[in-house]
């Protein structure tokens, strides 16, 4: 039980008044961006990244994790009360959640979703505490061949397997890989694709890319939709603000099932919590059909409980994959990885040895953040919904000011600002065409890892390509990859899946 | 990523009535043409960069250029496939896509102008002026027609940021033309 000792040490480090302030601040910010449609935790962390240079690494990282978890707490509020999910991760919750709200059970839906998010987050984080160190131990045996396989796995999984259209996913991946190539080659010192501009010798700053893609692109996209939006009515959340014993007993197994579905998805680069929330939703619906009195379609509490638990469970185990393997499995995790790098730390197997104190304090901070989030969400969800009354124009104008401030603050040079404009336009074009943005971030972050592992593997083995499939770990990863591709092909040749149909229906009713 | 769905903002334009069906122009329902074109531009840029690269030392089998060639090839293939799929799309499908892609270009242009002006003039005119103007441009672009109030809110926000970041966090924001006052 070495982990418990470490974790207690982590609590000792994190339980200072200042750190508690950062956790609470992160929880508040995360809930706010989660509630507001169009803003996500990835964008919030990207905007905070340049402003936290001067902060102590632990303080910044626990705040970011609070934002990550908080985004998944808040996202269902707008979905339940207004039928406009704050994020794609809340679409599955919205089906039954909004029906509950319409039948006068809005407080119960909000409470079910907050407790669900709490259950998923706590269970996943506890599992990470116990298993991440052994996963990191396993990963210390990784050589360049294994890392190349891991990066390739992430690339193909996020762009081809889970993406709506593999072609668009691969297009996003190609943009990201291209951006990552700019700068000085680490192994030979050759200047690559800098075209004589000294400002590009250090490569394109990750802050510039994340801010441009997530914030500037989003603002342009929102501007493009002015005048084309549908109005939505906010259903007031009034009445008995707690769950009855019967409701609790109905929701409890769904919370646990949802968490069980969500946890494994955190370590698969599936682009976040969208896939597991839908899986949890359709599982509950299948189970509901066998009940004597099916509730789905009339506001079933299980349909809210399971997807919410799945969403936060995915975020929890994604933190585990990030810390122990250095593998970002969602856009937010990719931005968090950039945050670690900003403080000179490299997530992955060596992190537990080199920065053990910070890792354990961060895990303790995550558990605390989940509790703080439950406290600020369970009783106050209707108050958070008031955020939806903020004028969108000021909100987006404020985001733009912070985006430019952040990019200017990192380097105070014009090249960064010009790049921000260009990449913002690229992100706008991608959003407008339905090209996913997460593969860009994953490619920018993991591109260099893939390239240098491949080149190291070639150099170490005297250019023998068989070295890439020379260990059980690589063979396992490539087999998983092939299975994923086969599953994708099978899914596409089959008529539309029930969950997919629901989702299209949801998108139509939203628009 | 998120599926943006905006509620009606305070002073936003009323939602426009469904546009009457009209003839499809060449670009309607073919948003991928732009993405494909950009991918091809990137592929060409990578090829030019690779052929003109001044390679230092021995980089092994792949060298500093190897992955560049691979990404160029990937971008070119995906770009061509996207363009072909956009050109071969049926008119019905394009019609429904064009409705989804409908864009308020004036709003996008105004927001982009604000951001570009900030990037170009920040060193000359300073943070306070440019941040206020950019805030106003974005807020106006997003449908808030109350110019005076946009300017005021933007100015207050820019001033607070200047005080907090320059005064308390030691981040240097240019004062520009206002520096001499």
Automatic annotation (TrEMBL), chain A:
Keywords recorded for this protein, A-Z: Membrane, Transmembrane, Transmembrane helix
InterPro entries with a match to the protein in the record: DUF112_TM
Residue ranges the record marks as coiled coil: none
Every DUF112 domain range: 20-441
Highest rank taxon of the organism: Bacteria
Membrane spanning residue stretches: 109-132, 144-162, 169-184, 204-223, 358-381, 393-410, 417-446, 466-487
Name by which UniProt lists this protein: Tripartite tricarboxylate transporter permease
TrEMBL record, chain B:
Composition bias, Low complexity: 11-20
Domain of life of the source: Bacteria
Domain named DUF1468: residues: 34-174
Transmembrane segments: 31-49, 69-87, 108-139, 151-171
Signal peptide interval: none
Keyword Transmembrane helix recorded: yes
Region entry Disordered, spans: 1-20
InterPro entries reported in the protein's UniProt record: DUF1468
Keywords assigned by UniProt, alphabetized: Membrane, Transmembrane, Transmembrane helix
Pfam families in alphabetical order: TctB
Full protein name: Tripartite tricarboxylate transporter TctB family protein
